[in-house]
Write a structure and sequence with these properties.
This protein is mostly beta strands and 65 residues long. It has one domain. It contains no helices and four strands. A hairpin with a 5-residue loop joins strand 3 and strand 4.
């Protein structure tokens, strides 16, 4: 299951960015979903596209077609 981090490090100032985006109505995040973060220090906004790499290692599907 893909799930965005609650916080990330701001690329500009090194501060903490907090997740602003609410989960989808069904609660399932999909690759390609866009999540938004706001830095508490410099107030920059970051829009991040979720990818398969956002799946925790223990849950990754190792099947290759």
């Amino acid at each position: 299951m893909i799930e965005p981090a609650n916080t990330i490090v701001c690329v500009d100032c090194g501060g903490t960015c907090h997740l602003l985006t609410y989960p989808p109505e069904d609660g399932l995040w999909e690759p390609g979903d866009i999540v938004t973060y706001r830095c508490q220090d410099c107030t920059d906004r970051w829009d991040i596209v979720l990818t398969e790499e956002d799946v925790p290692d223990a849950e990754q599907d190792t099947t290759h077609w």
